[in-house]
């Protein structure tokens, strides 16, 4: 029988619900999680400087740490890293679309990463990766239609698909490595019935 005991510094997540406490060693913002998010955001900052040519100049390798966190730690944690990663990438180019638009895109990235993390748990990491790449590429470009019209949509599809593919593949490879080393809270390479974070 699976225990629902929450370890210090972790939150309870069974794939369907999350128990969040905001303080204390077992709270969501525990010292361990804050440190982990800070490290991953720092990696996003590094990735933000590795650009993929695009009309906006903000497509970069900043999302991989967010996808990694969403896969092996928690979708919520990954969402935070993913959103901050985009803002860091936009900051390196001076928020070319304006801060409000980039805040909207940051929320969009948070949703994309959360969906990826949930699909990793509900389906598997490979299906999640393919869907995440397509969503980021096409939906991410479609969001720009009210701002730059269909021309910007068409111009962004390829850079976003390429950027998303690289970010997701890097995240999946890193997630597999962490899982193999026993360092992942959610093992992405284990069969579902053997995964300790899966519901029985």
Structure notes:
- One of its GO terms (molecular function) is transmembrane transporter activity.
- InterPro entries: ECF_trnsprt_substrate-spec.
- This is ECF transporter S component.
- It holds the Pfam family ECF_trnsprt.
- It comes from Trueperella pyogenes.
- This protein has 200 residues and is mostly helical.
- It has a single domain, classed as Arp2/3 complex 21 kDa subunit ARPC3 (Orthogonal Bundle).
- It contains six helices and two strands; from the N terminus they run E-E-H-H-H-H-H-H.
- Strands 1-2 form a two-stranded antiparallel sheet.
- A hairpin with a 4-residue loop joins strand 1 and strand 2.
- Helix 4 runs antiparallel to helix 5.
- The chain starts with 11 loop residues before the first strand and ends in a 20-residue tail after the last helix.
- The relative contact order is 0.14.
Highlighted features:
2% strand; 6 helices; 200 residues; globular; mainly alpha
**What structural category do the secondary elements indicate?**
mainly alpha
- Spell out the helices and strands N to C: EEHHHHHH
CATH domain topology: Arp2/3 complex 21 kDa subunit ARPC3
Overall geometry comes to globular
- The CATH architecture name reads Orthogonal Bundle
- What is the C-level CATH assignment? Mainly Alpha
Rg on CA atoms, Å: 17 Å
Q: Percent range for helical residues?
A: 55-70%
* Overall pLDDT score: 84
| Strand ordering within the main sheet | 1-2
Number of helices: 6
**Count of separate structural domains:** 1
Largest sheet: 2 strands, antiparallel
Unreliable stretches = 1-10
Number of strands: 2
What share of residues are in beta strands?
A: under 5%
State the end-to-end CA separation.
8 Å
Protein name: ECF transporter S component
GO molecular function: transmembrane transporter activity
Organism: Trueperella pyogenes
Pfam family, one: ECF_trnsprt
